[in-house]
Structure formats: structure tokens, C-alpha cells
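[job 0412] stage=fold_complex status=start
inputs:
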Amino acid sequence: MAREGWAMINPKAEQITSEILSNKKVGSYNHMVFAVTDLAAHARPGNFVAIAVGGPASSMVLRRAFAIYRSSIRADGQGLLELVVAASGAGSTWLTSQKVGDTVDLIAPLGTSFGIPTEPVRSLLIGGGYGSAPLFALAETLKARGCRVDMVLGASTAAKIYAPLEGKRSVSSLTITTDDGSAGVQGRVSDVIPRIIKDNDVEIIYSCGPMAMLEAITKIADSFDVLHQCSVEESMACGIGVCMTCVLPVLQDDGTIRMTRTCIDGPVMDGSKVTWTTSREIPEGVWGK
Amino acid sequence: MSLDFSTSLAGRRFPNPIFTASGCAGSGKELSQFFDLTDLGAIVTKSIMIKPRSGRATPRMAETPSGMLNSIGLQGPGIDLFLENDIPWLRDQGARIIVSIAGETVEDYAVLARKLRHVSGISALEVNISCPNVENRGQVFACDPATAADAISTVRRNIGGELPIIAKLSPDVTDIVSIATSVVSAGADGLALINTLLGMVIDTSSMRPKLSQKTGGLSGPAIRPVAVRAIYQVHAALPKVPILGMGGVACGRDALELVLAGASAVSVGTATFGDPTASIRVKNELEVLCEQRGFNSFSDLVGYAHRAEDANEHE
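[job 0412] stage=fold_complex status=done
writing structure:
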């Protein structure tokens, strides 16, 4: 139905009522498993879900978006989606307080996914806080393609590093940084990645985390002339491309910079094409300014 | 006897009274993945301006109790690309189309009306006059009876006699009836009530306004009583002028409330952000509610809350 050239929602996206199969506290986060249809087979690392929160009489009118940690089809054919949820606001706190057997209204898979190289390459995966969530499935996919996978995870403190044992199997090296030094190297991810890029001759960086971190990684990636695919985090009202709240200034193929929906043309974007700004103003040169 | 669920708005007939709301459905492309656009009475497109527009910087959005603030700033491709891409696509879907236009000057409205007057397949024009008038110290057209009428009479003169005009009014005024009366005298065939209310959220961590533009439009169920009041007041004063009602409708019961107040059709807006199929659900629920109340025709319910205390009840 979509016309050529028009970015659209993932054609495999479905809106479903989904049962919670598991909900376990892991450090500062909750690892949650949802029963879904065979949409699980179409979810790729980087895709996200949009979940209605608060129940039918909720005063929270907007969906919450979460990166997919893992998707799979169980032996009995049951589709599964796994999320890592940080209970930060009222919506995510409600979600993490739901019990096994409860149901939620969920739309997935949404958004773009990480591009997977056809040839084996040396990759570096960088996650900030629960931004590590989509990187483990990505690491498995890359490993299966014969890629070398190094990983850096950063957070303010040790409890906010999400790095499950099974997730680390596909990783050649894991470096952890914390602001307070409670785990790994004291400092930020940007302090350690130049050395890792040099030592391992990294060809592509994949990242997910806070916008300031993605901006810092973009600068480093550009200075080493390394590709950088980042999963951005801009607040969304709908997740399906109609509200126009989640936009970023992004360089297009036609040479223009346009305010671009991160729910449709993202969340995974080419870091070097994003005009990173914290000025709360539309940058000069943006189409239609 | 089955219910006649069709409705008439500004001289046009629609198979049912539930529409999308401008700015909450784009041009329908994204929602078409979730339902057939022809299942709604009409698609009201996002307000389009003359030129491409980047809109505002982020943050553009803040969730509020039973609602949200937005300050998108009318991001869009401009009328020429809109007519080239969006309208043909919507026509191909068989959707009934209401085009929403917005301008910064009276002349902008004239230009937009002239661009649209010969476009086929459009059912009506919604004129969004809740924009700052750059020629009048940025005062919003819809907040003054004279400037509101200026914008509408300009569209009337330039659109020709065929296409119905629906003037969308702001609730942020002292007397909405005087604005409504003024735009109807200026040539509006119908009224859209209500646009968002201006609001602000301050982030208590950064201790600054949350939105980059500081203020934003409040929408969602929080504003529904304001919509019901505005529709009721305007319908009482101008009972012959059809009203497209909107403001916080999230279920059939909410839509019925606006209809009883005087709306001939109802747009579903913010609810679509939380649920892409909200408008279809609202339509189905409203139809059941009309039948349960024993009505054979939807139009008999329009403004039904205005009947005299001693009036004979509907049988």
C-alpha cells in the first residue's frame, strides 16, 4: 500500500494483546518476557515495541517505547519478545510492577534495525545504561556472520550496567566504565573507545544509549573514519509516525537536512548524518526553517 | 430498524460521523496499516502551510495527567508537495478527505484556498486559524472576532462556491460564541470545536519549561469538558451551523457526549497516539450506544442535550 520512497511503519508490525510470561529484577532493571505472535520472527536487533501503560482507565495516554532485547520462537511455536525495562517514570514503573499472567497492549516490531554487514568485519558495540539491551542480540547476529565483536558498556554506577552472562557469550572483549568507579574503569565510554578502535582496527561501531553519549561517539567515529550506527532516544508520543514529536535533524540522500521521525527512519540511524544539538533550537540550514 | 449512522456536515454527507483529527493522523498513510481509511467518515489531514516547514525544536511533547502538551510547530512539506503526494494517495484509497490549512498572514489563506479550489476529491476545507498572525504582533487569528473573520472571508472569496469551509476555533477566548458568530457571518459553513488549550509544563529537575517553545497545546481527555462546554454554547447560539467536535474523545461514550452537546461529527485525535485503532473503536462503540438508546437516525442525537426539561422523551 505504501508508495515507493515513502518511509513507512514496519509492514510486519502488529498490535496485539500480549501476556507477560516472566518478570525478573536484574540489578537496577527488570527483564521481562512477553508472549507474542510470529511477529517475533520479524523483529531485528534495533527494532522497538510500543506498549500502552496504566490499564484501561489510565491517565497516561501515551505508549512507552522499549528497545527489543531479544526475540525468538519457542520450540512449541510460541513467539517471545524480551525487554529490559528501567522503572524510571510512572509508565515504566507500572509496567515493571505487572505480574506474570497479566496482559498488555503492544505494537511491534517498530522502527529501523541495525544494518548487518555482508562480509565479516571488526565491530565495536557500545551501550549506555539499559541501552545495552538491543546489543546482545546484535552481537549474536554479528558473531554468526564471522564478525569480531568487542563491547563497551557504561553507566553511572555498577548496578546500572546490564550485562547478563548469556549475553556476553558472543563478545570477544567486554569493557565496563562507571562514573563512580564501582565497576570497571572509572570514567565514560568515550574515555576508552579510541584505544579499542586502534587496538582492534574497528571498522564499524554500533551504539545505543543517551543522546549525549551518541554525540560523543559520533565525534570519535568520525575522527577515525569508522561507520557509526546509533539507536537514538527521542521522546515519542505514538511510535507509529503520526505525532511528529520524536524528530531529529538528519541529512537526507538529496542533500537536505530534515526534521526526521526517529520512530520511522530510526531509532537506528547513521550517526554522521545526525545534526547533534542540545540548543533547543532548529539548527541553521534545516529544510523548512 | 437499523440505525442510519450517516451524517451531514456543511452540506456534505458522510457514511458515519467519526473522523480523524488534524495533526493526529498525518495524511493517513501510517494508520492505513492498521485499518481501512474508508471505514471512517473522513480523514482530516495535518494542517498544511504554503511552504515546507521544519516545525519546532525538540522537546516538542510532554505527557500530562489524561493528556499531553505538544508544540510541533506545523512541520510539513508545504502545499505543493502535499497536493502532489498526499492527496492523490488518499484519493486512491477511496478515503473522504478534509484538508486542513494554516497561514501566518491573511494572504497565506488566500494562496492556500486558490491552490485547493480546483483539486478534486476533497469533501471540505478545515481552516486552522489558531496560528499566530505575523502581521498583528503574533496574535492568534482565532482569538479576535475581526481577525478570525478576515481569515475566513479571505478563504471564502478565494475558494469559490463549491467547497465547504469549516473554521476551527480556539477555546482560549473569553467568548467563543462571538468568534463563532463572526466566522459564520464571514462565510464559514461549519465550525470545528475545539483546538488545543495553551499550557505549560516545568521540568522540576532542570527547573525550566519542559518544551523548547515553553508553551504547547493541551489535548486529550483532560480537555473534554471544555470541548463539551464550547460545543454546547455554540450549538445553543447557532443551532443551524454544523459542528465538527473534538477534544479528548477516547471512546464511544465520549463521542456521544460531544454529539449530545451539538456535534454533527466527531474527530478522534490524541487517543490515536495511544491506540492506532482508537477511531475505529470509537465509531463502533458510538454506533452501539445510539442503537441502545433507541434512535433510528444518528442525526436525531445531534444536540439532543439541549431539549427542554419538559420535552417528550425520544421513543
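[job 0412] summary: Chain B has eight helices and 18 strands.
[job 0412] exit 0
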